[in-house]
Design brief:
Chain lengths: 112, 118
């Protein structure tokens, strides 16, 4: 059964810092892994999707990596801005490949 | 296409009342999912449809919950005899999966419907 864990639960940084959010998963036979952003009281916005054959994906200041052998993914945010403040969730498919299993998220606060 | 739409965005109801949420997926998507998210937690899978067929239901989906997707287009999620523990954000997502490669199943989420049961 796939389980997804995110550490830390919360993170506060000053503007301009580079930071890393961590995600670990138990089933290494993962088809893909997605990172989402969620603003308070809002739905989920997909940030990056990494297929199992890929090691990383980049979009602007965001870079996500996937290491299936260690069961880990990281989301790197460069030059953080106050607008990056949100909850970041990672998710991987269950073993059947149908439902997404989410971590509890990391709540990021970037101060100006 | 404007993405996945959910209605209403916020519903406040009294315990014991019935509520219904609607989801309009991206038009060409054949899969539709319902998730529930409580404060401080990640979304939890409830059920999904492939076209009009409901193919999987989570154990979280008690018999007070029913979901439909008539004609394989929009979907409704009804909660009967609401309880305070039903207070949560109900998220809908859709995806297009046409082949066998499960890694291609990429979900797009709506903005959610927040339920508050008093």
């Amino acid at each position: 059964k796939q389980e997804v864990t995110q550490i830390p639960a919360a993170l506060s940084v000053p503007e301009g810092e580079n930071l890393v959010l961590n995600c670990s998963f138990t089933d290494s036979a993962i088809y893909n892994l997605q990172w989402f952003r969620q603003d308070p009281g809002k739905g989920l916005t997909s940030l990056l999707l990494i297929q199992s054959s890929q090691r990383e994906q980049t979009s602007g200041r965001l870079n996500a990596s996937l290491d299936k052998s260690s069961g880990r993914s990281t989301l790197y945010i460069a030059a953080s801005q106050p607008g990056d403040s949100a909850t970041y969730l990672c998710a991987g498919p269950d073993q059947a490949g149908t439902a997404l299993i989410f971590g509890k998220g990391t709540t990021l606060s970037v101060s100006s | 296409d404007t993405g996945v739409s959910q209605d209403p965005r916020h519903k406040i109801t009294k315990r014991g009342q019935n509520v219904t949420f609607r989801c309009d997926p991206i038009s060409e998507h054949n899969r539709l999912y319902w998730y529930r998210q409580t404060l401080g937690q990640g979304p939890e899978f409830l059920t999904y449809f492939q076209n009009e067929a409901q193919l999987e239901k989570s154990r979280l989906l008690s018999d007070r919950f029913s979901a439909e997707r008539p004609k394989g287009s929009f979907s409704t999620l009804e909660i009967q005899r609401t309880e305070q523990g039903d207070s949560a954000m109900y998220l809908c997502a859709s995806s297009l999966l046409t082949g066998l490669w499960k890694g291609a199943n990429v979900l797009t989420f709506g903005a959610g419907s927040r339920l508050t049961v008093l």
